[in-house]
Amino acid sequence: MRDLIVEAAAEDADLSLLPVMDVTIGGATRLAGDGTLETLSLNAAADAMAEGPHLCVHRLRTGRLLGLNALVAHDVLELFAFARPARPALPTLKGLAEALTLDASLETGAERCGAIRTLAARLLADMASETYRYHAGARDVAVMMAQAGWPWGPLVIQALDRRAGNRDGQGENGLATWLRVPEWQDDAPPPPPGDAPVAPEDAQNRLARILGSGSEERPGQHRYAGAATHAFRPREMADGPNMQLLEAGTGTGKTLGYIAPASLWAEANDAPVWLATYTKNLQRQLDQELSRLYPDPRTKAARAVIRKGRENYACLLNLEETTRAVFQRARVESGLDRDRVLVGLVLRWARFTRDGDMIGGDFPAWLKGPFGVNRISGLTDRRGECLYAACPHYRRCFIERAARKTRHADLVVANHALVMAQAATRPDGDPDLPLRLVFDEGHHLFDAADSAFAVALSGSEGAELRRWLRGKESGGTTRARGLKNRLEELVSGDQEAVTLLEQVMAEARQLPADNWLSRLAGGAPITAYETFLTHARGHILARARDAGPYSLEAALTDPAPALVESADQLRRKLHPLGRALTALSARLKGLMDEQADTLDSSDRGRLEAAARSLTQRAELVRQWCHMLQTIGPDDAADGTVQGDGPAMVDYLELDRIAGKDRDVGLFRHYVDPTEPLARTVFDKAHGVLVTSATLRDRVDGAALEQEEADPPRSEMDQAHMARPQAHRAASREASGWGAADSRTGAQHLLSPARRLSVPSPFDYARQTEVIIVGDVNKQDPDQVAAAYRALFMASGGGALGLFTAISRLKATWNAIAPDLEARGLPLLAQHVDPMDTATLVDIFRLEEDACLLGTDAVRDGVDVPGRALRQIVFDRVPWPRPTLLHRARRAAFGGRGYDEMLTRLKLAQAFGRLIRRADDRGVFVLLDGRTPTRLLDGLPAGVPVHRLGLRDAVARVAAFHDPGSGHSVSSGG
Asked: What is the crossing angle of helices 254-269 and 280-293, to 10°?
C-alpha cells in the first residue's frame, strides 16, 4: 500500500503545535484568535466560520445549528478519534474534558472556548511525546488523511515528526491494519459441562463479595440473588428447564443479583452462562457491571465476552478492499474527501480495538453522522458475504475470535435475538448451545420472539437470497462472490455436487434482481417473484383507505385472480429452488463423510458452514411456498392461518417512508410467538431466568407483594403441588402473573415456573408526581411542541420527552430546539442527532441540564440517575398500533383488556426511568387529557395524580423542582 501514498507537504504547517485559530461553540459563540469573545447571530457565525480555520467540537452538530450542510473545521472530536483510537469519549466538550482528565470550569463561554484550545493542544502534544502509546502506523494514516483534505492532517504529521527518530512501526505499512490484528489460536474443546447446583446462601455470599464492604444494604437484592438459584440447579424434568420469573422493582439491583449465581455456576461447571438483553443500552451497562465482578481487565477479558450478531463487527476483508478502492479511485480535487478521512479514522480504530465491535462497542459512534451510516455499515460483516476459512484474514477475524472466546468464557453477554438465532439453527446437543440462560428485560421477550420467528416473503429478502446465491450481478464495490465462487474449488471433483450447484444458480434467477423496486413502481417485473410483488403492491394500494406517505398493509381477503395466479406461479418456481438447496446441502454433508480422512480442518469448516447455511435457506424457501399456497379466495377475514400447529397471521405490507417505497411483500407472524420461543429455545436449556422490573400487569394495586414466598424448597414444592390447578391459575391472574406467563412463554412449559416479585425500595409517593394535561390538543403539532417547550423550561432541563411517532418527535425538535439551546438547555433527539441511542443517553446522563427526545428505545432500559433526569413528558397514551397483526392478537388474548395490559406495561416502563436511586425526585407528565384512570394502575401505589391545564402543570413542575420559585399551583383533580 505504501506505493499508493504520495507524501503530504508539511512545510506549510505552522511551527507551533496548535496555530492560533478562532473557536466556535454552541453555534454562535466565538472566541477570536486575539482573545475577543463575542456572541453572533447564526448567520454571522456561519459567515465567520467560512472566513478561516476554526476549532469546534462536533462539526456536524455545529454546522446543523448554523444551517451549514458541509462545514469544514478543525473538529477536536476527530482529532481525539485519531490520537486516542478505540478509547471512549462522549462527543461533547464535557465528554472530551472527562476523557482527557481536564480539570477546568466550563461554565462561561470564555471557559468553554479556552478548554477547546487546551484539549486540542494537549492531543497534539501527546502525539509528539516519547511516551505516546498509539504511534504505530499513525504517520502513514495521517499522510493519507492530509492528502484527503483533513484539516488536522498537516498538524498531526508535524506533531508525530517531533518524536525523536520518528519510530513509527519500524518501517511497517501503517495502512495495512488488517495485517496487524493479532491472530487467535484454537484451544482444546471444553469438556461437557457439569451439573453442580448453586445454593442460595452461596449466591448471596458472592453478591456480598462483589458489592464489597461498606456497600448499601439492600435486603431485596439479597433475597433476589437467593431466589435466582432455581435456574442454576439440576434440571427437574427432561422436557423443560427450571424456569424462574423474577420481577425486581427499580432499585433492587437485579443485575448483580443474577450475576452472582450465574458466575458461581459457570465456575463450578466449566460452562458459560448466557446473559441476554434486548437493548444495546443494557448490554453496555452489563459490561460495566461485570467490571465489579472482574476488577482486573485481563481477567475480565478472559472470562466475560460480549457477543452480538455478525453485522455488528468490522470485517477485515471489507476494510482491506474498501481501503484499496479508496486509493484506486480518483481523488477529490478540493474540499474534504470524506471517504478517505473515514477510512483513516477506521484504520486507526481497528489497530487498537478491544473486539472489533462497530455498533455500540469502542468505535466512536458519532462518526456515522459526518461520514454516513451506510459507509460505516459497509465495513461490517454484511449478511451472506463471509468466506469463513477461505478468507485471508480468517485467523484474525473479530467474529471468529469472539466465537472461540465464548466457548471458554464464564459469562456471555448477548442479546435476545442472537440467543434465539443460535437455538433455532443448531441441533439439540450442540456444544455451542448454552444450558443456562438469563433473559434480562424479560418484558421484551414477546417482541423479540415475534421478530425472530416471523417470515417475510418480501422484495428485500428475495433480493438478499439472490445476492447470497449468485453474487453481485452489477457494478459496485462489494465482493459478494456468490455461492458458486465460494464452493467451486471445494466441489470441483464431485460431479453430483457441481450439477446441483449449477441447478441452484439457475433456479435463483427467479428471485428479484438488482433495481427490482423501481421496476415494481413502473409495472415492469422481469421475474416471477417480481410479478407477485407487483400484484401484491397493487392489492395493498387498492385496499388502502388513505394511500398517504406512510407504510400500508392489507389483508388477503378475497384477493384478485391476478394475485392468486402470480402467487401460484411463484410457488411453482420456488419449489425447484428449495429442492436444489436441500439436495446440495445433503451432498456437502456427504462429502464431509466420504473425505473425512483427507479433508483439512479449513475445508471441512467451509463445507460445514455452507451446508448449514443452505439448510437454513432451504427451510426459508419451504416456508415461502407454504405462505403462497394459502393465498386463495377462501382466506380467513383476519388473515389467521390455522393448521396442525400454532395459529399464524398472514398479511401484505408496503413499507414506505415519506411516500417513498422501501419494500413490499407477504408477511407471516405467529399469533403467539412465545410458543416457538418455548419450543425452540427454552426446551433446549436446563435453566432459564427471566427478569424485569415490569413482568406483571399490576391490575390489582393490592397485589404488589409476591404471590409465592420463598420457603425451603420441599415446603414450596409441597404447597405448589397441593394447590388446585384452577386456584393457582386464578391466583396468578389476580396478581398479574398471568400476563407474565403469556408474555414470556412460561405458560407453554410442562414444568411450572417459579415466581417472585421483589418490590422497589423507593418511596414513590414522596419522590414523584403524575400530571395529566387536559387542554393540549394532541393532534396539533404546534400545541404539542409549545407544551414540551414550556415544561422543559419549567424543570430547567433534565427532561426526557417520549413520543409514539417519529414524525411528531422531529416536528417538536424543529420547533423548540433553537429556544432551548438559547436558554442553555441542549436538546438531543433520537432520529435527528446522528448518533446511536446509547451515545445520546450517555450525553444526556453527563449533561445535567440537557433534554432528550426519543421513542421506544429510549423508553426502555435507560439508566439515568440523579438530576440529569427529573421530568418525563409523554406526548400521548401509548396505545398499541391498530395493525392487522395486533387485531388478531387482540382477538386471541382478551380484546380491550389486552390493549390496556400492553399500555399499562409501557407506561410502567417509562415511569420506571424516573427514579433510579433513593434521593431522586421527578415528575411524570402525560399530554393526553383522555388518559383513563385505570391505565395508571400500572404505576406504583400512592403516587399523586393531578389533572391540570397546561398553565397550572407548568407551574406545578417549576414548584416541584424549586419550591421557593414563587409559582402558584392549583390543587388539581
From this structure: 60
